[in-house]
Each structure stands twice: as C-alpha cells, then as structure tokens.
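User: Hi! Is it possible to get a structure for several chains at once, not just one? Here's what I have:
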Amino acid sequence: MATESGRPSNFIRDIIDNDLKAGKNQGRVHTRFPPEPNGYLHIGHAKSICLNFGLARDYGGKCNLRFDDTNPIKEELEYVESIKEDVRWLGWDWEDREFYASDYYTQLYEYAMRLVFMGVAYVCDLTADEIREYRGTLTTPGKDSPYRNRTTLENIDLFRRMRAGEFPDGAKTLRAKIDMASGNINMRDPILYRITRATHHRTGDKWCIYPMYDWAHGQSDSLEGITHSICTLEFEDHRPLYDWFIDQLGIHHPQQIEFARLNLNYTVMSKRLLLELVKENYVSGWDDPRLPTICGLRRRGFTPESIRLFADKIGVAKADSTVDIALLEACLREHLNLIAPRVMAVLRPLKVVIDNYPDGQVEELEAINNPENPDAGTRKIPFSKVIYIEQDDFREEPHKKFFRLAPGKEVRLKHAYYITCQKVVKNDKTGEVIELHCSYDPESRGGGTADNRKVEGTLHWVSAQHAVDAEVRLFDRLFIAEDPSKTEPGKDYKANLNPASLEVLSGCKVEPSLKDAPVGGKYQFLRQGYFCVDLDSKNGKVVFNRAVGLKDTWAKIEKRR
RNA sequence: UGGGGUGUCGACAAGUGGUAAGUCAGCAGCCUUUGGAGCUGCCAUUCCCAGGUUCGAAUCCUGGCACCCCAGCCA
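Assistant: Yes, the chains can be modeled jointly so their relative placement is included. Here is the combined structure:
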C-alpha cells in the first residue's frame, strides 16, 4: 500500500507547490468537497473526495465538507445523511467544518444586493422561453433584455419584493449585467436568483428565491477561505464568471482548478442514470453491489483502503479518460490479500466418500488463517469420512493440464490428506456425476508425505456433517458493453444491461467457523475469491457476496483451448 | 460558424530542452500445501500529424487534424 502515502506527481500539486513557493494565501492550503445532496455518492465522487481531502492531509491544510444545496426541488435530507456516512467511511474527517450553501443564503442575498446597487445586476421579467431566445446560440450573440436598463432604484425595489414573495414563481429573475455578446455563454447575463416556492430541507419555507449554483458556489468558497477550489472540467468556462463575481465584490479569491472526472468501463456514473436504475428496479437499491456507488461497493465487500488506493493509482489529469474496471478490482485484491482470513467454502458441492476412512471418526486439523500474515494465527477445521468438494474440481476426462481430481488421480485436500479417486457414481438417467468414492493415504495427514511424492493439485473441501449452509451471490459487470451509452439507434443504455449480472447460489457449504460470521466480514474463500457477509444474513442464514474473484490462471488456459 | 479544453503503450499516467517512470491488462518463466500471493523477464527507437528552431525536442515555434464541454429559472 506504499502508493497510498506516496505523493504522485500531478498538475494540481504542481500548482500548489508553486503557490506555496510564491507565498500565496499565507502558505495555507484549504480545499473542500462540495456535493449536491441530490443522490448517492459514487466512485467518481470518491476520486474527488480523496483528491481534496488528500491534498489537505499532505499539505497540512484543511478540507471542508460543503453541501451545495441551492435547488430544494431535487435535494433531500436522506442524501446528506448518506453522503456524510460515505465520506466518513472512506476515512476522511471534516472535523467541525460541515457547511451548507444554504448557510450563506443571507450573505448571498446581501452580495447580490450589492451588485444591484453597483448597477451590475438587474431584475428581469422575461419568461424562461424568452430568456433562452434572447441568449442567442453558440455561434450567434444574444441580445439585451428589454429590462436590462431599469434604474438602480427600481431594481432594488423589485429584488426586495422578489424576496418578500410578491411575485409568482418564475415571474422574475435577478440577472448579472455582463455581456450578451460574449463568446462564453455563461457571461450572457446569467441568472443569479429565481423565484421558486419549494420547501428546503434546511431552511424550510424561509426563502422563495433561491440562488443559482453559479452564483452560490464561488462566493461560498470565498466565504470559507478556500484557497484551491477543485472541480471538474465542465466548469472550466464558468471560471471567468466566478472570477467576475469575486472581482466585483472584492472578496477573497479562491483559485479554481479543473480536472477530468472519472469514467469507468462497463458501468454508468451519472447520477441521473443511477437514479433511474434504482427507481425502476433494475437493481435492488442504491447499495446494490453491482452499482459503482460507494454504498454499493461497500456492500459488495470493498474496503476504504482499496478505494483510496485506486484513487491514488488513477492519478489526476485534464485529459478525458476511462479507467479499466480491472484496476479497481486489482486494488481490492491487493488490500484483501493482506487482511482477509482464508477459509474453505464449496459453492457447487460434489459429495465425496472416503471409503477407507473410519466411520464416525472426526479429526480436528490445523489450518493457517492467512499466509500473508503469520499473526493471523491458525484455526481447527473438522475432517470426516464424507466431504464436499467443488464440482469443477472433478473431471471424468481431464485435459492434461487439469491438475485436479479425475478417476485414478491423486490430489491433496488442503490442510488434510491426499485422496485418490476410485469410483464415480452417476445419475442413471442424466449421466450427471453425483458422488465420488475415494481412498485416502493416512500418511499424508496435514498435506505432505514422507516420500515427498508430488501431487498436482490442492483442493478445498468441507466436511459434510460439519458444513454450514450458505447462500452466495456472484456478481458480474452490470453492463455487457464497455461503454453502455453506445447503443443501436433507438435504444438506450439499458439495452446493454447484463442479464447475467447476478447469480444466486443456494446450498453452498462453508466451513463451520463461518457460522456466525459478522455482517461485513471479509474472507478469502480459498482458490475462489474474496467474499463479504451481506446484510441479508439473519437468523442463522448466512449470505455471502463475492466482492471479486481470485486471478484464475486455469480459467484462462481453459478458455484458450 | 462562437467560446473553453485535451491529445504520451490495450487502459490509466509521469515527464517542465539532455535522449520515454510507474500501475493495470497481456505474454514467458521461477516458486508454491490456494492453478492465489510473491519473484524475474518481455511489452512506446517513440510521444495526434506536418514543417521549423536547436548540438540535442514529448517538451519551444508555426500550421493542420481529431476528440470533449458549453445555448437549464439543474449542479
């Protein structure tokens, strides 16, 4: 995990280094993570969170959590709670600096009034359609609103009355008077306030005018003394507007720096699409383990460390990019490999009777908990005459590279004995293999023999009479297409949903130590992958989610054939 | 046709005029009581293209090309 504390070079750190060298901001570094509470956080937000909080950590600065709650129609308390939980879970601490744009509504109103007094903001009576019309297009300039030259006195009066609730929703707006001919559309007299009678999750019905994001954001940063205001690329051409506001007001000037948002293949990251998948029940909820939401990843079995590691590894730059989801998975494996206890679990059981093993005998065999960490110690696992192995670990007619069990072949049972397959029992009708009869070598107890003979394969197993039943959920990517938005004409991203993204296995057999495994507990099922106890586990029923599989060389060999 | 950005390996991404880091993926091998992990080696004579400057260019200059974002009273 060395890279997590390492300091990868990136253009933002270069800027900060230079600022520090130049003595800007009295050497302060103060960032913020500014989510809108209108949805759950996803892995893309995690990139931004780790960037902002990570910068504060590395430069001995601070990072605020600020909710940009300027649109009461879309925002809810449920979302602010989930956001706080997720940021905390990721391992970051905003201490007492939990802020809301709505904390600044009064100040923002006063700032706006200042602009009105200065003659650079006016009340406009144009309808939404008219405003769009007057705005012009990308290639043609807009034209001035007929209300643009109202007197300052009239604007003061009108703006006060907007706030006082004298006009119906949408009847008027407050606009900055900048330049309707600007090539930058954001500068064509942007709207500062709109009239909307909606109950705000924090301010209730106190306000009937709400600031636009563009008006609130820069001033909020300024009020908080933010030095480096880091945001995504699409706000690059808003920067001149934010600068204009700050300069007009003559207040602290944060420096905005834009970076490329995270894209991941085989998934979607937009809040709108995630909301649709949740609302229309394509997934089980915001925390569906197939979703790239933070809570989905958490339920899936991801650790905060693995996500932070991922954020470090993908870096920060300005070029649009799409990161391979395999990198995210690799980060999870890297962390879980170090910390996850190894256990044995048979997902698709095949019964094996060891004919020469004494009836009724049970041995407690010692098993190492984690070869990567000797401190994890050992545990005892029961062995007996009838065990289960994985169906995939037996082949009647094996390929020469198949190192597992086959008629007449000897394999090692992990931590136990060598067994040799003597007889195959099949279902008369279907021909399906339903049971194996094997012999064991009593000299091989613990997994080795005095003659040092080689066995090609080592299998995991579970003693039948001691096994605990479990349900296991296997997840595959939610979409079959690298870029789900690329579809045939007339179809949308949902056409790319993977119909096999969830496979539920019941009747799985896991070793007895897992009987009371805690929700959220993470394990490596030997030779299979990393699994996490799902919150659906209750009254003795254990449910595991496969967070990620182990690298499977055999699967690759088999696929090539 | 306006404005703002970006182009370095299959995917991310360092590089800031001195001769292309690292990670993931892939490939080959070693090792292995997990076909896991670990270890070793290979994987960009070339940086969107074309000119130019220079002893020397991914880095500087000129001209192209491609891609992304912007016309919500969303953020």
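The two ends of chain A are 36 Å apart (CA to CA). Chain A has a mean pLDDT of 96.

User: Great, thank you!
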